[in-house]
């Protein structure tokens, strides 16, 4: 009787582990990143090559100490593969990039036109993939002009117009 009870308990444990372990392992295999934000990932030892399936979705930067910075560039899912010198796969991860989360981001719809605002604590315009083309272009143009002025030490912003 005891042997039968032990066998049933062992069988139930094996069945449960067969169903639960793949889900637990699968959850650890996916890195979730927010669009325009970065996440850190530890690389295994002896990595010589890192491949990103779609660099339009996620970008990587290798840092010292075996760290890698993963930045969300576009909505969607891609994968990352780390190889050693002989081409052996040391690590493979899925990367899922989603939109900003939380109460600090507001999307305003005007018919089919969308605008995104960042409200931290005051609401300011923010460009996000999926915003209407006119809104996106206007904000991107302002950001580029500001960055250009900063890069040139403000010379382009204070330069008198040619006559």
Question: Would you mind describing this structure in some detail?
Answer:
With 163 residues, the chain is an alpha+beta fold. The protein has two domains: 69 residues, Sandwich (Immunoglobulin-like); 48 residues, no CATH class. Helices cover 31% and strands 37% of the residues. The protein is built from three helices and ten strands; from the N terminus they run αββββββββββαα. The strands form three sheets. The chain has a four-stranded mixed β-sheet. A three-stranded antiparallel β-sheet has the order 2-5-4, with no helix packed on it. A three-stranded antiparallel β-sheet has the order 8-9-10. Strand 4 and strand 5 form a beta hairpin. The longest helix is centred in the N-terminal third of the chain and has 27 residues.
Report the oligomer: single chain
Rg, alpha carbons: 24 Å
> Count of DSSP E strands?
10
**Distance N terminus to C terminus?**
102 Å
H and E order:
HEEEEEEEEEEHH
> Helices and strands: which structural class?
alpha+beta
Domains, number:
2
Strand order of the largest sheet: 1-7-6-3
CATH class bucket of the largest domain: Mainly Beta
Overall body shape = elongated
* Helical stretch tally: 3
CATH topology of the largest domain: Immunoglobulin-like
Q: State which percent range the strand residues make up.
A: 35-45%
Identify the CATH architecture of the largest domain.
Sandwich
DSSP helix fraction: 25-40%
Q: Note the main sheet.
A: 4 strands, mixed
Low-confidence stretches: 11-28
